Amino acid sequence: MTSRTTLLSALLVAGLALPACSTDEKPGSKPSPDADERGGATLVARSPLTGLELKGGLPKNPPFVVKIENSSSGEPQYGVHHADLVVEEMVEGGITRLAAIYHGKVPSKIGHVRSLRGTDAGIAAPVEGQVVASGGAQKAYAVLDRADVKVWSEDNGAPGFTRDPAKRAPYDRLMDLRQVAAKAGEDEVARDYLPWTAKGAKPVPAAKTASRASVRFSSSHTTEWARKGGTWTRQNGHAASGQEFRATSILVLSADVKDAGYRDPGGNPVPETVFKGQGRATLLRADGGVVEGTWSKRTLGSTISLKTADGKGFTVDPGRTWIELVPKSTGSVTTR
After folding, report:
1. How far apart are CA 329 and CA 215, in angstroms?
2. Which SS3 state, helix, strand or coil, does residue 235 take?
3. How far is it, in rounded angstroms, from Cα 299 to Cα 236?
4. Is the link from the previous residue into 112 a cis peptide, with omega within 30 of 0?
5. Nearest CA to 36 among 73, 2, 11?
6. Cis link prior to 76 (omega < 30° from 0)?
7. φ and ψ at residue 81, rounded to 5 degrees
8. Structure confidence by residue, pLDDT tens digits, 281-297
């Protein structure tokens, strides 16, 4: 991996640090590590994956993108509720797989873990994330290698993998992410994953409101959502009891899909969603507001840019976000 720079996006919380010459400090004493010597303001780190303040500082571990089965064959899903951000992507047969990104928390039980796809390069690269998967096709490994994305796979002897005796292969892999984090060492994140709404800023006016949404990937799969108590939850998910991901925002992005150039063990052609370029965007907020527009991402590693239909930029409220990466040809979102 390339060397990483310190995260530049930090929140200036004015007035929390005392001036260097206050009566509580001895002459010549140094300000606290969080104090900005130029203005006496306290610098509080902000999570690049949630936009939320991290008063304890940024995690020492890199973000980990764990590939998780998203069908009844792999249920129950463990540990998805601990993710900072989740991307749902289409795989062969028109069904979907989850790419759950962990940074603030490193769970001891995640599953059931499945193989990587070339799409994961564009999911991990914006925050220089490291992908955790059971394995993958050589062409998929090659895509991630070209994007300079590190992969921890069971095929390559990564630590932390165990088998669930209640499941059958290939739906039986579990992951103790703490073991990977111990090997990965410390690292820093250079940029935000999404354009986060600044503290105190007013959100873009919504054209309508919704309490339910249907996100269609293909004729084989539609993810159903409902909003209650200020969060969105899946209505047809596969999470273990009490472990459903509660999203502050749902961001539906339509993207190009190409043939990955190989077939799965069952002989099905494998699609590869290209997570760069541009397409339609729909943001579902915690207050029910629905914002329509477009998204763009110049490179696999770029932060997503969002614009309304009239070309004005809009942002995502800090919190946990679920990104629905739907195909341009077959994907859609219906709200009500």
Report:
1. 13
2. coil
3. 33
4. yes
5. 11
6. yes
7. -65, -15
8. 999 999 999 999 999 99
Instruction: Find the DSSP H helices in the chain.
Output: 120-124, 138-146, 177-184
pLDDT tens digits, 102-158? 999 999 999 999 999 999 999 999 999 999 999 999 999 999 999 999 999 999 999
> Strands 151-153 and 130-133: what pairing?
parallel
Enumerate residues 6+ apart whose C-beta is below 8 A from 11: 43, 44, 45, 46, 53, 199
DSSP 74: G
Nearest C-alpha neighbor of 313 from the set 281, 335, 336, 274 = 281
d(CA 144, CA 161) in angstroms, rounded, equals 21
Strand boundaries in 15-144, DSSP class E: 42-46, 53-54, 64-69, 85-90, 96-102, 110-111, 130-133
SS3 137: coil
Under DSSP, is residue 175 helix (H, G, I), strand (E, B) or coil?
strand
pTM: 0.88
List domains and CATH numbers for the chain.
Answer: 64-184 (3.50.90.10), 208-335 (3.50.90.10)
